[in-house]
Amino acid sequence: MKPTTANLILRERYLKTGFFIGFHLLILGVLIYLPDFMVSTVLAFVIYYLMEPMVIKLEEKGLPRTLASSIPFLLFGFLIFLFILWVVPLLNEQVETLKIQMPEYVSRMKELAAQWESRTHPLLQEMGQNSMVDSTQHYLLNAISNFFAKIPVLLTSSITVLLLTPFFAFFLLYEGDVLYRKFLKIVPNHLFELIITVNHSINVQMGQFIRARLIETALISAFMYIGLSLIDFPYSLIFSLITGILSLIPYVGPVIAALPQLALCLISPELRPDFIPIILINVGSQIFDGVLLVPLLVAKIVDLHPVVVVLAVILGGQMMGIFGMIISIPLASAIKVLITAFYKYANHSN
Amino acid sequence: MKVLWENLFRKNSSQSKIAHLLKETIIFTDLKNHEIETIEKIINPRSFRAGETVFRQGDGGVGMYLIASGSVNIFLDEASENQEMKQSLITRLFTGDFFGESALVIEGGKRSATVVAREDSELLGFFYPDLLQLIKSNPTAGNKILFRLGEVLGTRLRETNKQIISLISENENLKKELGRKGNDETHYSKSYFT
């Protein structure tokens, strides 16, 4: 029996939809199977969204795409070079000092835990807890040895990621649009307008999200660095960077970031007077964020619920370690934008 | 010898066919050749089989389509008196015609009619995100398109107003006629009973 036109259209639609879904599942499979590839892709998108407005501005001035994509890329490379030249040696110096001081901090921590244990011993015994001193020492030693054991793996991944990310980012800036047009050719007709709408929403919102969040992180880090340097607090650069990055996690992040600074004050008698200034600087950075940065930068962008951010970071960390934690927030936001855009389109289409 | 016989300009000629079509379309008519080339790069060619729906009335719309080859039927879905949905054919569009342009300026707007390919057709889709990108990267070309788009939408509005006015006057005439008939009938019935 000869198929009717309606059947033919339906069959073609199923085939094209199947191919389209299969293609996406294949890409997802490759990304999950090759974590370095996934991290590089997500980071390349972060760089792409960061530089895209500049590329458009340069194109508007009449520059061809090759030059318009190369100039911001070289500028970004130069900034990274300056960062490596100025910030990395300082960071390295502070990390080295921290490594040397670590055993002393651990033993002081042990002493502090012993003091607390002696005060709360009867209560803990009733609760059936093990010795707090042993637990603390065991936990700290485990964490430190785990961290140092992971460094070679992390370094190998970093080199792969460092090589792939700029390559992917430049490719996205230069040929991204051509690639997108080619991708659109495999989209079935009945999904075409939906995909265009969703892609447009993702581009606009992810661009705003990434730019706003990176500027927010940099400004909070700078605020913290100035504050900590003013009171001459050790490891100011490490702590300010940690606070800047952890501020991406609402409510919980700044508290987690402040804990090691306060712990350092508690275990070092010479830093005890800094306890109150440290609290003030951290609270100050959050007021600066809440009063100035959030209304100016973040208010209009896609925002994730704090619980979702925490869950995404934990999930990212469990699946792919430190890199997983780094990419978890942009990835979670992309998924949120995707779901919102689908929902909005479905609502508009009755 | 092959080089003497083969069509060396095939690719170029197919490109110029789209370029020619774009240049003929009122929305792109003010664009210079290099601007038309930019449009060619961002436009989305789509193939539709005869009977395949391009979009349905009530769907969220993101842009316009230009017919590169083939033809389409435009239907209006209406609820009949017994609440059943019926489709009535409004018009047919052919190669060089375009439709759905209001979606280029109304973000999140809904399609006001259903479009179905009448035969195997090639359509060129030009969408809201493409227009935004063009306005950002080439504001001169973007402005030319927006200006012409305004003209098209204004003309459509004027035509719709004309039709509304003619419908209103038709309605008035009908009312008058019915009123006159009603008076005649009353007069007739009155005279019949008296």
The most extensive contact between chains is:
A-B, 26 and 30 residues
Q: Can you count the beta strands of chain B?
A: 8
- Spatial gap, N to C terminus of chain B: 104 Å
Helix/strand-derived class of chain A? mainly alpha
Which band does the percent of strand residues of chain B land in? 15-25%
CATH class of chain B: Mainly Beta
CATH architecture field of chain B? Sandwich
Shape of chain B: elongated
Helix coverage percent of residues of chain A? over 70%
Please outline the helices and strands:
The complex is a heterodimer of chains A (350) and B (194).
Chain A: H1 5-33, H2 35-60, H3 65-127, H4 132-184, H5 189-230, H6 236-246, H7 252-267, H8 275-298, H9 306-348
Helix pairs in contact in A: 1-2, 2-3, 2-4, 2-5, 2-9, 3-4, 5-6, 5-8, 5-9, 6-7, 7-8
Chain B: H1 2-5, H2 10-24, H3 33-42, E1 44-48, E2 53-55, E3 63-69, E4 71-79, E5 85-94, E6 98-99, E7 114-117, E8 121-127, H4 128-137, H5 139-193
Antiparallel strand pairs in B: 1-8, 2-7, 3-6, 3-8, 4-5, 4-7
Explain briefly what this protein structure is.
The complex is a heterodimer of chains A (350) and B (194). Chain A is mainly alpha-helical and 350 residues long. In chain A, 88% of the residues lie in helices and 0% in strands.
How would you characterize the overall build of this protein?
Chain A is 88% helix and 0% strand. Chain A is built from 9 helices and no strands. With 350 residues, chain A is mainly α. The mean pLDDT of chain A is 81. A 4-stranded antiparallel sheet of chain B has the order 1-8-3-6. Residues 1-11 and 189-194 of chain B have low confidence and may be disordered. Chain B has 5 helices and 8 strands. In chain B, helix 2 crosses helix 3 and helix 4 packs antiparallel against helix 5 (139-193). With 194 residues, chain B is α+β, with helices and mostly antiparallel strands. Chain B has a single domain (8-193), classed as Jelly Rolls, CATH 2.60.120. Chain B starts with a helix and ends with a helix. The longest helix of chain B is centred in the C-terminal third of the chain and has 55 residues, at 139-193. At the A-B interface, helix 1, helix 2, helix 4, helix 5 and helix 9 of A face strand 1, strand 2 and helix 4 of B.
